[in-house]
TrEMBL record:
Family label: Belongs to the sigma-70 factor family. ECF subfamily.
Domain RNA polymerase sigma-70 region: 20-84, 121-169
This protein's name: RNA polymerase sigma factor
Alphabetized CDD domains for the sequence: Sigma70_r4
GO molecular function: DNA binding; sigma factor activity
One Pfam family named in its UniProt record: Sigma70_r2
């Protein structure tokens, strides 16, 4: 009796060895900086490639690069690990005797990965929506000022921001990222 294969069909398989060679060490360093534990970082990298292999049929190079996709998965796995250790701190003690800070906040690496993901998602929405979001949310400019610069009513700008954020959320979901 043959065991049922988990993951994609052989013809659709992600070249895990090549992906690991190209991105594994970088993912390990990211996880290590986030968690501060070498063993946990190794577990994260293993889980990233396992999830990537299982979901390789959902990877679309038109939506995001392999690197961006893997880092999005890594970000989710790191968050899962941090939550697991926060709920069960004794598991952390079994590995190396250190505890996670109560609220470590986002590190530079996590902010960088988030920025890559948002930038990639922004590329996938319309130019008018992208401009509205970038000017009002990312640059923090007042709606009235941006609307005057674009030569549109403030209500139109607000509508573009609203629908742009919906499109951005959808683009991120298509990339496999939880917004």
């Amino acid at each position: 009796m043959m065991a049922r294969q988990r993951g994609p069909a052989p013809t659709e398989q992600l070249d895990v060895r090549a992906a690991y060679a190209a991105h594994g060490p970088e993912l390990y360093r990211f996880a290590l900086r986030q968690l501060g534990d070498g063993g946990a970082a190794q577990d994260v990298v293993q889980e990233v490639f396992l999830r990537a292999w299982r979901a390789s049929d959902s990877f679309d190079p038109q939506l995001a690069s392999l690197r961006t996709w893997l880092f999005a998965i890594a970000r989710n796995v790191v968050v899962d690990e941090a939550r697991r250790f926060a709920v069960r701190p004794w598991q952390r003690e079994l590995t190396d005797g250190t505890d996670l800070p109560a609220d470590p906040g986002p590190s530079t690496d996590e902010r960088l990965v988030d920025a890559w993901v948002v930038e990639e998602a922004l590329r996938r929405i319309g130019a008018e929506h992208r401009a509205a979001i970038v000017q009002t949310h990312l640059r923090g400019r007042p709606h009235a000022e941006v609307a005057a610069e674009l030569g549109i009513p403030v209500g139109t700008l607000r509508s573009r921001v609203f629908y742009g954020l919906k499109a951005l959320r959808l683009a991120m979901e298509e990339m496999g990222v939880e917004p």
